[in-house]
Structures are given as C-alpha cells and as structure tokens.
Amino acid sequence: MMSHKSHKTSLACAGAFAAAAILAGIGPASAHTIIGDRIFPATLAISDPGTNDELTLPTFTWTNNADGSVSYSWNGFYGKRITADLEVQIFSSFLHQVNPRLNGWTGITTDVVDQIMVSNEHEFVVSLGVAELWGATGTPGIAPQFTTISPQLFIGKGFGDAPWDWARPIAVTGAIAYNVPTVAAVFNNNVLVTQNPTSLFYGFTLQYSLVYMNGYVQEVPEILRNLIPTFEGNFTTPVSNIGPSIPGAIPGTHETTGVVGPGLYYVAHDYQLGIYGAFPINRGSGKHPGVFANVDFYLDDLFPNTLGKPIFGGPESSAFDPWHAFK
Known about the structure:
- It contains three helices and 16 strands.
- It has 327 residues and is mainly beta.
- The chain has a single domain (4-326), classed as Beta Barrel (Porin), CATH 2.40.160.40.
C-alpha cells in the first residue's frame, strides 16, 4: 500500500512538472523565432526569445523524479500573434506517472509575450512576457488549485555578424521568470499542508546552426544541413516563503534544482523535429536523465495568408532571407 508520505511526494513532483510549464517555458511551451537571417528553433529547455504563429503537437517528456516515480507527459502548445510583435500562447499537458500511478491534466497555462527590441542586422531580440498557470483547471491532486503568475524576460543573439566564419553559426538564448503563487500556503483544519514558495526560473541554450552555416558560411553535407545541435539547461531556485529546512528532504526546501544536456533539432521550411537529453544537476532534480521531444509546425509558413499571419497586420516582407539555406 502506498504510504501517505510517498503520495504527497509524488503529487509534489506532479505539481512541480505542471508549474514548470510556465517557468519561461520549458520545451512543452515553445515556439521558433526568426530574426534577420537567423532561425531560433523551438527549443525544449526554454522557450525561444520571440513571437510567431505556430502549433507544437505533440511534445513528449519522460522524466525520472527524485522520489523514484517515473513521469510521462504529452503536451500541446498554440501560439497566435495579435500583432507582429505581440503573441498570445496557450499550453496544457496530460501526465501519466508510475510508482505510484497518477493520471490527469496538469492545468492550463496562458502567456502573453511582447517582442520589445529587435535588430535584424545583428540577429538580436528581447521580449517580455507574463504567464499564468491557472488554478483548478486540471485534474485535482495533480494540477494546483491556485494560480501562479510569472513575469518573464527572454533574450536571443545570433553571431552572424562575427568576424570569424566558424563563429557565425553560433547563437545563444536565455530566459528568466519570477514565479509568484497567489496562495502562499494551504491549510487543513488550521494545520499547514503545503507551503508554496516564490521561485526564480532561469535557463539558456547554446546553439550551432548548420542551417545558418549552409546558407551563409559554407556548404554543408546534405545529411547535416537541416540540423541545429544545442546545449541547454534550466534551473529553479526558491527565493521566498520557503519555510524551514527539512532534514533529509529530496529535493531540499532551499535547494536549486535543474537539468542540463544536449539537444538536436531538424529544421525544415514549415516544421521542426527536436529531441533533448535532460541530465539532473543533483539528486533533488531527479534520479536519472530524462528525454524531451517535440514536433513543431510553423503556421506562418504553412498558412502565411490565414492562420499564420497576425490578426492585425498582414504577412511581413523583409530584405532578410532565413530560408536561403533551403533553396
């Protein structure tokens, strides 16, 4: 029989996964961005730094949690531009967990992202966002019953303006979010059941685009020219409303958790395939490496005059050509 303690731990892991969906967007909530001649793929550790119209369906994750449970999830994401720089996103996930067994929806997340600074010439972009993981929108016992609000910052930089040919395919992205639960603690008959800390999420990707190399530096063998290898990571640190340290707790009450690892993305003109190996940075982050994978459809390229254009404003014209490598 499952003990009360192990059940609470597993629910915490399930809730942590649900919350991760909004923390500047781990891969399930992701989208690609085009800045100048640079394609920033829909990465899996964090969301890309800009706005676009697209559908990510499905994203699959497999994780080994710190308490010994194993979680599988299937996720869907839709992003729609209101204007060229303003996007509204919606995301949800179905979770299946073994040891102990849990099944259900992790809740609905919405995000509003505004691309506030763009330099096409220097392949540089900065965006601000506000995400909400809405309480009581998923399966009770898995999804949180309170809302979490997360102001976000996204940055991306491609090095196509570098003086060295070997460096021009490089790009980096970063994301930061400050996650504020609307309920500080949950009580039952005046007994504290759980404390909901405010936390800081932060992550990065380092990319080497063979797509960019083939289009703008030198020809790449055909088998490689659609690939973007990456190294990625994301981390969460509790910062307030943490409560006292609990000896032997995994993860520790004040402990930073996170994952890092390699990723690989196959980028075509109107879709993308991605995979990411997530290695825990400590015992509290998981027992074994996990795997994330996604299929992302570029609606702006599939349906440029209908579903893929902003609600206000038509398809954009540009002197830049990020798809040059595919011609």
